[in-house]
Amino acid sequence: MKTLKFSNNHKMPAFGLGTWKSAEGEVYNAVKTAIKNGYRHIDCAAAYGNEAEVGKALKEVINEGVVTREELWITSKLWSNMHAKSDVIEAINKTLTDLQLDYLDLYLIHWPIAQKKEVPFVSKVEDFIPLKELPNELTWEGMEEAVAKGLTKHIGVSNFGPKALKQLMASANIKPAMNQIECHPYFQQNDMLAFCKSHGIHVTAYAPLGSGDRAAKFKAEDEPVLLKDPVILNIAKAKNASAGQILISWALHRGTSVIPKSVNPKRIVENFEAQAVELSQTDMDEIAALDKNYRFLTGEHWVYEGSSYTLESIWA
Ligand SMILES: NC(=O)c1ccc[n+]([C@@H]2O[C@H](COP(=O)([O-])OP(=O)(O)OC[C@H]3O[C@@H](n4cnc5c(N)ncnc54)[C@H](OP(=O)(O)O)[C@@H]3O)[C@@H](O)[C@H]2O)c1
Q1: Under a CB-based contact definition with an 8 Å cutoff, are residues 203 and 178 in contact?
Q2: How many domains does the chain have?
Q3: Which is the most buried residue in 138, 194, 241, 293, by most CB within 10 A?
């Protein structure tokens, strides 16, 4: 199992299970199946609304002796309505209660966007708090406090562009250890990967399979289907592997962490086995040529007329 090494020598399994959109009644089985089949890294978030069910599965696999807490790597994320410095500890404590854990391995600021505490999901411009009023740097102070209190071993960010990362690093006492971002052959993020590497920040690739189960409101009508790309399918055929396995293996070959989501037992096992799929330099070159700078998660759901958050400001 490939690992990413953190500054204090902790090792994060590069391959993990995504849990966004994993529905009630499904995510419990998915997490148990995954861990029983060798997964040691689970990617969670308060905003996914399913951490209590993930927690039930974690508690059971630990109690059953399948795995110890120390063998697992659990990531979660701070939602945008808890960005006030004084709210971060409340948010991580709620996540820890739901996950039935004493500590997280990694806690991320989910988006560089702040919204009012009483609003779980924004629906109008008044629901936001402009970054001028509540900058990420203040939220980060709360994240650092979570480390000091032993509630998480590491902290990082998600969906941050270089500008927001640089601003954060200028005042941070603890450097962000991770940026979790969309990354797949249609959106390879080479500049972002180079930027993160130069600052010692690891990258986790989300939506590695194209995030095909997103709700229609998050989807373009004519979006390309990564899992049906002829180049990916050809490489898969030649290796007697599935398209999904090639996409996962590609992410691992690039030195990123990768967290494909599945609630299907067969695909959960298939995705795990992708770690054994080797890609040649020719395969990597062919996949490199597929880059279209195409985001599946555009961030447009964050944009409201009159708001200081624009696509340019979010991804800058
Ligand atoms: N930080 C962020 O803002 C952010 C944003 C997006 C995602 N994420 C994280 O990244 C994880 C992965 O991204 P994602 O869930 O958007 O999308 P994804 O992993 O790219 O795709 C998930 C879809 O692929 C299907 N699938 C899984 N394995 C497959 C295989 N081997 N062959 C064919 N289809 C397969 C799943 O269906 P079944 O379940 O039926 O197998 C599901 O429909 C999320 O779950 C979440 O943990 C984070």
Answers
A1: yes
A2: 1
A3: 241
Query: Residue 103 Cα, ligand 1 centroid: separation in angstroms?
Result: 25
Q: Determine whether the shortest distance from the Cβ of 20 to ligand 1 is under 6 A.
A: yes
Q: Is the CB of 26 under 6 A from ligand 1?
A: no
Q: Do 151 and 104 meet the contact criterion of CB atoms below 8 Å apart? A: yes
Query: Residue 307's pLDDT band (boundaries 50, 70, 90)?
Result: very high
Atom of ligand 1 nearest to the CA of 211: 17
Q: Which pLDDT score, from 0 to 100, does residue 217 have?
A: 85
Residue 13 lies in a domain: yes
Residue nearest to atom 32 of ligand 1 (CA): 244
CA 184 – CA 174 distance, rounded (Å): 29
Contacts for 199 with CB less than 8 Å, ≥ 6 apart: 165, 169, 175
Angle (nearest 5°) at CA 213 between 180 and 237: 85
For residue 244, the model assigns a pLDDT of 98
What are the pLDDT digits (tens) for 53-87? 999 999 999 999 999 999 999 999 999 999 999 99
Per the listing, tokens 């029983």 go with 36
Residue type, 202: H
208 in any annotated domain: yes
CA 186 to chain CA centroid, Å, is 17
Q: Write out the H or E segment, with its range, that includes residue 194.
A: helix 190-198
- Helix, strand, coil abundance in the chain, percent, nearest 5: 45, 15, 40
- Spell out a b/e string for 94-129, using b for 16 or more CB atoms within 10 Å of the CB, else e: bbbebbbbebbbbbbbbbbbbbbeeeeebeeeebbb
Q: Tell me if 233 is assigned to some domain.
A: no
**116-143 pLDDT, tens digit each:** 999 999 999 999 999 999 999 999 999 9
The verdict on residue 61 lying in a domain is: yes
Crossing angle for the helix pair 51-63 and 85-99, nearest 10 degrees?
A: 50
